[in-house]
Amino acid sequence: MEDYALGYTDTERERLIRQAGIIAPITERLFREAGIGPGQRVLDLGSGMGDVAILLARLVGPSGEVVGVERSADSIARANARVAAAGLRNVNFLNSDVNNIVAEEPFDAAVGRFILMFLPDPASVLRSVVQLVRPGGAVVFQEPSWAAMLALVTGLPLWSRVRHLIHETLLRSGANPEMGIALYRVFQKAGLPAPKMHLEMPLGSDADFIRLTSDLLCSLRPLAEHHKVSLKELGDLDTLPDRIGAEVAAANTVVSLIAVVGAWSRKPATADSPRDEPLARQRK
Ligand SMILES: C[S@@+](CC[C@H](N)C(=O)[O-])C[C@H]1O[C@@H](n2cnc3c(N)ncnc32)[C@H](O)[C@@H]1O
């Protein structure tokens, strides 16, 4: 699991949860647009702390079901505790690599957020995931576009350096910071119709918002060292959030957290499998 760029420290897990809180409305809008709703059975790839699975569980309701796939057993333990604390009974996590998902029943939809960017061959994973979705079912992913974020750093030299050094570290680690835009091609390579897509960027200026990015840098620090990306020019990382905050306040502006590209498409019906209706209705 060492090859997962962000790693599994407690700080990184907390960062994911805080980030998820800000992105949740964007993710929910995309899921609703793709038709995810009551009674559906949904697969969530790379479920991490369970935030996407919890959001889905509320959308599909008690008659629906969510299966999250995550390869870190510790993350699953944490996600299970959060699901229980939320009083939800319709979520299960599968401790598996997304390359080897085994499911006995098909899904109405397969989704994932910030997972394909870390996979060496996202199209092949998506192609096998599409096999698990019923004809007419939705395939819905959210991935970043760093190019969109790097366009918004002018006039903020420290912030710009932080952004560029994170970007460089991700690139050298083999992750794809432009996976969001690449979804257009990856969906088609996986045999899906070209997806509907849009891009949203949460913007902010307060200390908690800025801290999410300096915490991301801290999660990536071992990887930066490994790939010889020097963070020395940033000075003391403990004071970095305050110094970025002062820079943003002096410019009286906002910065982006992440540029979230959403993409969704439907699995076409074929002569072999012409059925195009929700599984709940098929079961009746
Ligand atoms: C950036 S986190 C995103 C978590 C969650 N989807 C969210 O948006 O909050 C990526 C997650 O994918 C998991 N992951 C990465 N590669 C994986 C793989 N090949 N199979 C299963 N899970 C994987 C990591 O363990 C991590 O929990």
Largest sheet: 7 strands, mixed
Parts with pLDDT < 50 across at least 5 consecutive residues: none
- Summed up, the helix count is 10
Strand content: 15-25%
Radius of gyration: 19 Å
Mean pLDDT: 94
User: What characteristic shape results from the CA principal axes?
Assistant: globular
Number of E-state strands: 9
In this entry the ligands are: S-adenosylmethionine
Straight-line distance between termini: 41 Å
Structural class: alpha/beta
Order of helices and strands: HEHEHEEHEHHHEEHHEEH
Strand order of the largest sheet: 3-2-1-4-5-9-6
Share of residues in helices? 40-55%
Strand and helix layout:
Layout: H1 10-33, E1 41-45, H2 51-60, E2 65-70, H3 73-85, E3 91-95, E4 107-113, H4 122-130, E5 133-144, H5 146-150, H6 157-173, H7 179-189, E6 196-200, E7 203-204, H8 207-226, H9 240-251, E8 255-256, E9 260-266, H10 279-283
Helix pairs in contact: 1-2, 1-8, 6-8, 8-9
